[in-house]
Every structure is written in C-alpha cells, then in structure tokens.
Amino acid sequence: MPPRIPPLDPPYEPEVEALLSKMMAGASTEPLKLFRALAHNRDLAGRVRALGAGFLGRSSSLHPRDREIVIHRVCARCGCEYEWGVHAAFFAAQQGIEEQTLNATVLASSAHPVWSSRERLLVRLVDELHDTSHVSEDLWSGVSAQWNTVQILEILMMAGFYHAISFVANAARVPLETWAARFPQA
Fold first, then answer.
1. How many other CB atoms are there within 10 angstroms of residue 34's CB atom?
2. pTM over 0.85
3. Which of 27, 28, 42, 120 is deepest in the core (most CB within 10 A)?
4. Looking at domain 64-171, what is its CATH homologous superfamily?
5. Which regions of 37-134 does DSSP assign to beta strands (E)?
6. Domain coordinates in residue numbering, the chain
7. Going by C-beta distance under 8 Å and a sequence separation of 6 or more, which residues neighbour residue 177?
8. Which of 138, 132, 130, 117 is nearest to 159 (CA)?
9. pLDDT in tens, 157-182
C-alpha cells in the first residue's frame, strides 16, 4: 500500500535539514522515514523529538531493557511493525534482548516463561493499558513494588507515546525501513 503521508525526500529545506539532524541525534545516516513524514509538520515533529529523546536518553529513569520491553510490546499490540522493527534493529541487541524474548513481544502472553517476573509485570501493564486504558489494583500493586513513582509515570507516558507513534506510522502508512526487523511469524 502506498504511504498516505509520504516521507519527505532530499534535498531538504534548511529548517527541515536541521530538524531531521536533531531527530537523528546528528547521525550521518539517512533520516528515518517516520521522521521524514512527521517533518511535514515541523512544529509537531519538534515536540515529538523532544519527548522521544527523553525516553531514549540519559535522563530516563528506566533501565534500557525495561524501556525496550515496553516499547516493543506497545508497538506489537498496536500492530506497528514499522516502529517495532526500528527498535528491534537499533536497541534489542544492545540491551541483551534475545531473539526469543523479542519474538515474544509479538507472539506470547505475559504468562510465557521467557519473561522474568519484572518483565511479566511490564507486559501485563502494557496489555491492560492497551485493552482497558486502566490498571487493575493487583497489577498496580506489583508494579509499584518494582518501580518508584517517577519510573511508573515514565512507563505510563512512554506506553502512551508509543501508542501515538504507532497510530501515526500505521495510519500514515509509513513505509518500512529496508534494514529494520520484521514481525516474527507464529
């Protein structure tokens, strides 16, 4: 299916070039197609960049593996192969997320034995938020025993942020990156 909001192609206007460079944290590689699609609305793209960079940067209060489990599960539940695949290619191996665990973010329930007890809580939290937009008392008790208030707020905001990113990537039909991972098959 063709993109509904096609990613911008070079040469970029100077303001777009500067924005994309910030979004790519100065990397010399081609900007992500999602970023190039968002660049149609520079103001919005700048706001997205700021929040996304906070989740992925040093200011995050979360362990990077916890962060990636949440992001992968949110994207999988939203059917967003684009963002799931980008994170799988960029971050999974860096955070020691094995292929079986990565595949489980798409294919397995929170009860699957691949998850540690902490990861099981994260997967349950993402699933409950996705299915109900609420968190049960039982799950909240388990989550609050593992993460502090600052971290819980970050997990909740991050889950919502990647839900929004999934909505944009899916609805805009952002083309998959050729180098990114693909959803595993059942």
1. 24
2. yes
3. 120
4. AhpD-like (1.20.1290.10)
5. none
6. 14-56, 64-171
7. 32, 33, 82, 85, 86, 89
8. 130
9. 999 999 999 999 999 999 999 999 99
